[in-house]
Amino acid sequence: MHPNLGILSVTFGAIVGFTFGHWTESLSFLLVIMVVDYVSGTLASLRDGKGLSSNVGFWGLAKKGLMLLIVIVAHRIDKVLGADVAMSGAVYFYIVNELLSVIENYGRLGLPLPDKLRSAIQILRNRAGTASSGQPKAADEPESGEADEKKDKDSKK
């Protein structure tokens, strides 16, 4: 192994260890579901005929980066309080958030979702303490931002 690669690996491991603490399976799952959400959102956008927008893609990735920053902050809060609650709560919250987005994207793609997976998502939602119904939005229902923009346009008329 090349010495510089070893130094780079150790440095990367130290940074990850400092920022996230011990690496958990839930943190791995969060990263995997973030990728699945991004890919399924991109495919759903293509299927809807909206095409690809570098601006939308950039902001989608930026939001995912900000989610990870919140997880890092939650880990630091746990360190200050001597607890192991904030990071787990943040990770579960974002897992549920991403899973709901994947369900919505699958609905836009016209793909079915197994009932067992829906049940598992409900369990995670309860664990994260979210109160939403978990039903995916209809494909023709506007996103919350789109609805706000429509209201603004209608009020200006």
Outline:
This protein has helices spanning about 5-20, 25-45, 55-80, 85-110, 115-130, 145-155. The chain is mainly alpha-helical and about 160 residues long.
- What oligomeric state do the depicted chains represent? single chain
Structural class: mainly alpha
Can you give the helix content as a percent range? Answer: over 70%
| pLDDT averaged residue by residue | 80
Count of discrete alpha- or pi-helical segments spanning 4 or more residues = 6
Shape: globular
N/C terminus separation? 67 Å
Low-confidence stretches: 131-157
Q: What fraction of residues sit in β-strands?
A: under 5%
Question: Could you give the order of the helices and strands?
Answer: HHHHHH
Q: What integer value in Å does the Rg equal?
A: 19 Å
Report on the biggest sheet.
none
Tell me the total number of β-strands.
0
Layout of strands and helices, then pairs:
Blueprint: H1 3-20, H2 25-47, H3 54-81, H4 86-109, H5 115-128, H6 144-156
Helix pairs in contact: 2-4, 3-4, 4-5
Task: Walk me through this protein's architecture.
The chain is mainly alpha-helical. It has a domain at 23-131. Helix content is 76%, strand content 0%. It has helices at 3-20, 25-47, 54-81, 86-109, 115-128, 144-156. Helix 2 runs parallel beside helix 4 and helix 3 (54-81) packs antiparallel against helix 4 (86-109). It is globular and about 45 Å long.
Please supply descriptive tags for the structure shown above:
157 residues, mainly alpha, 6 helices, 76% helix, 0% strand, globular
